[in-house]
Predict the 3D structure of the following.
Amino acid sequence: MFVVNPLDIAVEIKGVSHSFEGALGQAGAELMALSTTDLAIRRGELLSLIGPSGCGKSTLLNMMGGLLTPTSGEVRVNGAIVTAPMPKTVSFVFQENALFPWNTILDNIVVALTFQNVPSGERLDVAHQALKAVGLSEFAQYYPDQLSGGMRQRAALARALSLKTDIILMDEPFAALDEQTRMVLGEDLSTLLNQTGKTIVLVTHSLGEAVFLSDRIAVISARPGRVLEVIEVGEPHPRHPEFVTSGKFAELRNRLYALLHDEIRQTLSTQAMGIPSAGLQSAAGSSRHD
Ligand code: ADP
Ligand code: MG
């Protein structure tokens, strides 16, 4: 059996569950977003989390980054239990990129580097290199609202990659973009990853994006989420457009589709019938999952 050295694990999720209190406006109600989950993310890999909407992907990602605390179990980053955000180790890229509108994209990166205590003499160089890597050199002096959505997300990616964090957590970073832009950004990301050796956890709802970008894909069940299966993609980076038309790609995509299909049906039917979803229960009741 393939055994991973604990030192090669960047993020470890051990018996983690998370419930939100007072969910859906009901006092005392508890919504279990994630049920007991184990997952180990290897150093330098890109692992995608994919699953039906509302299954707890963002909840899991936010616990990895210290933005949320597990209800039970523990999350470790580089071996240490996570208790708060770790801006020197972990950076985030969200769907709505949080660029400062009053700064040019160059200054957005410089400011982020300042917060990271990068010496002032190095910041401009690092920021220019980061923009070059994502093809935005010509737009360094533009403000975010002068750029298209795709370019803004590219700038946010440049900023995340320029920070000296080993780990980047991405929550549907391409979700607001059109398919063609996503494809090109995906190719760029694959090339950049090949150069940086960073560990990336990517939440996506796109089967194709998951297969194209990931080293491994963790498929999450309908809520309360748990890991149904972890799929190895086994294709070297950088990935090229030809990969998308290969038999291997189709096979992996179909496997994901088959795994997710029933989960998505389950989510839709509970929503349509107005059934209180699995995992929603009264905190005062006796049926708490612990
Ligand atoms: P995903 O990212 O997979 O779409 P989330 O992790 O955002 O799902 O949410 C999982 C479940 O937890 C959903 O049912 C969502 O409505 C619920 N949820 C998320 N955040 C909160 C919150 N702050 N308070 C109450 N419920 C929440
Ligand atoms: Mg989400």
User: Anything to note?
Assistant: The chain has eight helices and eleven strands. The pocket of magnesium ion (ligand 2) is lined by residues 57-58, 171, 203 (CB under 6 Å).
